Amino acid sequence: MTDSLISSAYTQALEVIGAVEPRIADATRQELADQRGSLKLIASENYASPAVLLTMGTWFSDKYAEGTVGHRFYAGCQNVDTVESLAAEHARELFGAPYAYVQPHSGIDANLVAFWSILANRVESPYLQKMQAKNVNELTEADWETLRGELGNQRLLGMSLDAGGHLTHGFRPNISGKMFHQQQYGTDPETGLLDYDAVAAKAREFKPLVLVAGYSAYPRRVNFAKMREIADEVGAVLMVDMAHFAGLVAGKVFTGEEDPVPFAHITTTTTHKSLRGPRGGMVLAQEEFAADVDRGCPMVLGGPLSHVMAAKAVAFAEARQSSFQAYAQQIADNAQSLADGFLKRDARLVTGGTDNHLVLLDVSGFGLTGRQAESALLDAGVVTNRNSIPADPNGAWYTSGIRLGTPALTTRGFGHDEFDTVAELIVDVLSNTEAGTTKAGGPSKASYALADGVADRTKAASGELLDKHPLYPGLVLG
Ligand code: PLP
What we know:
The chain has about 475 residues and is an alpha/beta fold. It has 20 helices and 17 strands. It has two domains: about 260 residues, 3-Layer(aba) Sandwich (Aspartate Aminotransferase, domain 2); about 150 residues, Alpha-Beta Complex (Aspartate Aminotransferase, domain 1). The strands form five sheets. It has a seven-stranded mixed beta sheet with strand order 4-10-9-8-7-5-6, with helices on both faces. About 50% of the residues are buried.
């Protein structure tokens, strides 16, 4: 019954869309076919449920609702209030957080809201107080200039990009690296693991206002109790960006000192990665920061995406079911199987393995750059992304690594054996790929040659796995 409902909902929706712009209907059908037919190993992606996807396609998209629940700058927001309250309530319950702000449109927005609320909460500045005024138009250009000067004196310490941190954790070209004086902590050069003593030493010397923990490409768990200890010792605010592993927190795989929410002053996240919700962001905060985070709009955000907040509520309701805990545990178990599959085939992994949802494969042992490996794998129907490894000799564009995550294929039902086969297929492709040469005859970091027949045999083998675990099995487009 549900399957046929979903099938007819999408079939009819695509007919309606196709009557206006058939090429968009065609691309939407093709995207489903492509996602169904490839091994999706991008660590930041997933497959949201039809309920979550359908919730995004409604007239809530048409509603403006700047402000907060019960305090909007537009009339007629009572239904948006219902949606936003429910999403926040589910989020508080799911993560055991005193306060949840579900308006951020993305992870980057969530981090910007967090940075501004930390500044507003901790920095004595008449200009910041003015910026918290309801009417931001009160600020003159001179105010902004002075403010920029004042903000320049605040400090942020985050994990470096090549150690696995995110752009928004103080990377210099990002606004987080411009609003603050920034320094970065890395990982131990021998083990690739976080060295808490080294982070503490850096924090003592640098004395940041904000200590950021969390990552995009670090394949290990973090002890947030230790990070909080470091923050407390130097008087910093601990901000944890759990965008990547929020699903493992929600699913109670990361508990105790591995659960950031009780230890961080502010926790930010995306909702679309391991958490398997709609594309969006969220901020969780301890009470002392709640009022400042609540001013995300108008400080950083405009109108919230009401249709996405509704989908967040649906996704959080799903994540509160016990089946989500089994899913989250399977994500971690599968990452272990994938890592073991590589290690037994003599591939090198950054940190020597994983204990979260991702592995970082060092492809230099295959004589390839990350860019070459990513392209060859894509030719064989394996979708990954290239990623820097610590002290990467090939920089952030070509890189020496491939990041692989298990959340998406775990949603499809892949288990231990399938992930072992995935490792086997990847090693086969990379072992049969040769780095190319430049026009001048030197080694190229981009061109490559995949041996004949390898793409076809990989697609045939992965096709068997994908057929065994179909994506949206009941969904048939008429
Ligand atoms: N924070 C982390 C740790 C991330 O990995 C990402 C995205 O990959 C973001 C923030 C940004 O999320 P978004 O792309 O939704 O802005």
